[in-house]
């Protein structure tokens, strides 16, 4: 993998750099679009707050959904998987197994009242 030899600091710097660049590009694009749409109002600094909020929400939604879609497609492409089942198998190969602990408490309750009583009694023990 391209990131396996990199340190955590380098990986974090890369992700923060891409995020920062995306933030600046999105803000710049919104500002440019607003200026093109109505340069007179832009110069005055007046725009209907509701219109601005809806435009910002629409763009943010588009950017976030589109960005996450591209991210998912990129990860799937790098891993060489085509569906969720393959992705799960690939993650099990790449990641260390999660240690499982036995539940030290009771887990077979007959009804909600028994569960609540157990929670109250267990809370008093601590």
TrEMBL record:
<keyword id="KW-0999">Mitochondrion inner membrane</keyword>
<keyword id="KW-0472">Membrane</keyword>
<dbReference type="Pfam" id="PF07096">
    <property type="entry name" value="DUF1358"/>
</dbReference>
<dbReference type="InterPro" id="IPR009792">
    <property type="entry name" value="TMEM242"/>
</dbReference>
<comment type="similarity">
    <text>Belongs to the TMEM242 family.</text>
</comment>
<dbReference type="GO" id="GO:0005743">
    <property type="term" value="C:mitochondrial inner membrane"/>
</dbReference>
<keyword id="KW-1133">Transmembrane helix</keyword>
<protein>
    <recommendedName>
        <fullName>Transmembrane protein 242</fullName>
    </recommendedName>
</protein>
<keyword id="KW-0812">Transmembrane</keyword>
<comment type="function">
    <text>Scaffold protein that participates in the c-ring assembly of mitochondrial ATP synthase (F(1)F(0) ATP synthase or complex V) by facilitating the membrane insertion and oligomer formation of the subunit c/ATP5MC3. Participates in the incorporation of the c-ring into vestigial complexes. Additionally influences the incorporation of subunits MT-ATP6, MT-ATP8, ATP5MJ, and ATP5MK in the ATP synthase.</text>
</comment>
<keyword id="KW-0496">Mitochondrion</keyword>
<feature type="transmembrane region" description="Helical">
    <location>
        <begin position="60"/>
        <end position="81"/>
    </location>
</feature>
């Amino acid at each position: 993998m391209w990131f396996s030899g990199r340190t955590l600091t380098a990986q974090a710097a890369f992700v923060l750099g891409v995020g920062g660049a995306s933030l600046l590009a999105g803000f710049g694009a919104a500002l440019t679009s607003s200026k093109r749409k109505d340069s007179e109002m832009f110069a005055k600094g007046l725009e209907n707050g509701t219109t601005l909020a809806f435009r910002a929400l629409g763009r943010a939604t588009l950017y976030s959904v589109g960005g996450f879609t591209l991210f998912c497609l990129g990860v799937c492409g790098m891993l060489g998987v085509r569906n969720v089942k393959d992705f799960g198998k690939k993650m099990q190969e790449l990641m260390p197994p999660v240690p499982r602990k036995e539940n030290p408490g009771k887990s077979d309750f007959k009804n909600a009242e028994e569960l609540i009583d157990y929670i109250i009694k267990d809370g008093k023990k601590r």
